[in-house]
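Progress report, Aim 2. The chain analyzed during this reporting quarter is listed below.
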Amino acid sequence: MSIPLDRRSDFSIRINNVTRTRVNGMIQYLGFLNPAHIDRLLVIKPYNEEGGKGYQRPVNQRRTKDLAEYLSHQQAVILPPILLNAAGNWEYTPDNGSGDTGALICTGPASIIDGQHRIEGIKRFLDEYNTEVRIPFCAIHNLDENEEIETFLIVNTTAKPIQKSHVHYLEREHDPISWVASQLATDLHSPFYGITAITGVRQWRRGLPVTLQNLVKMVTILYRKVDPEQIRKEDMLEIALTYFSEIKNTFLEAWEDVKHNGLMQIVVLNALAMVASQMIDSSQGEETADLYTLKQSVANMKGFDWSRERFKGLHGPKGSETIQVELLTHMAKQSARRGTE
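Predicted C-alpha cells for the chain:
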C-alpha cells in the first residue's frame, strides 16, 4: 500500500466492465477491482506523509479484523464502494469506440479517499481464506491534492453513523436479546410501547425517554445469569413483559411522570433488571422464572421513593448497583412487615 506516487510507467493494468458517469461536471468511474491488483493499484496517504499533503488516520487493526471475521461468515458479500482519486492515472477507453461503458487503463496508482479499513480487512480475509471477493469502487478521474483532502473531510465529517439501536433492530431475528428488546419496544401490550426510540436517540420532550439500545442493555442484565440455550426467547419476552408491566401498573404515576420521577431513567431500569435477575437463574435448574414471584417482588417495592432527586448523581453500573441494594433492602422490610401482619 506504499507505492510511490511518482511511479507511472512500470505497470499497466486493465479494468473491464467500467461505467463512466458525470456528477456536477466531475467524471467518475464505477466498477470492481481484482483483489490481486490491490497492492499495485492503490495507495494510502497517511496524515504524517512528507510534504504535508497526507490525511489518512492510522489503520485500526481491530476494525480490519472485525471485517475479515464478518466476511468469513457471509455467503454473499455486499460492500459499499471504496472512494478513490485516480489522479489522472486511469484512462477510460469506451467499448465500441463510444459510450459510457468501457475499460480503464491504469498506468499509475489511485489514492484511497474513503475505504482504507475495508481494503485492509479484505486483504486480511484473503490471507486467511482461499476465496474471491469483488471490490466495488468509485474513482474520481482527477482531483488535485487540495481537492482530495477536501473530499476526505466532506466524506468523514458529514456522514452520520447508524445508531446502535438501529443495528439491534436489524439484527433482531439473529440475536435473542435484540429480539426481546425489539418486541418490548413494538408490542402493543408492552409498557415500553410508544416511548422507545428504535432508530435514534432519546427524546424526552417527544415522549421517548428510552432507546432500543437501552432496552437491549436492560434485557442483557435481566438474563445475565441465564444460559441462552436453556430458555426460549418467547419465554424471555413473557418474563420481561410480566415484570415491567407489573412495575408500570403498580407505579403508574411514577412511570408516566418522567419530569418529577426517575423510574424511567436508564440507571433505574437497569437496577430493576438486576433485582429480577436474581429470580431468573437457569443454573438453579429453572427454565423459566416463577411469574407469581416476580409480581410479588414488585408488590414489595411499594412505598419506594421514585423521585428524580434521590437518583441525582447515580450513573452507570455502580449507580444501578447502589439503587439495587436500596431496593432489595426496602423489599426485605416490606416482606417482613407483611409477615407480621
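The first strand starts at residue 13 and ends at 23. The beta strands are 13-23, 26-33, 42-43, 82-85, 90-94, 101-106, 110-114, 135-140, 196-197, 210-211. These observations will guide the mutagenesis work planned for the next reporting period.
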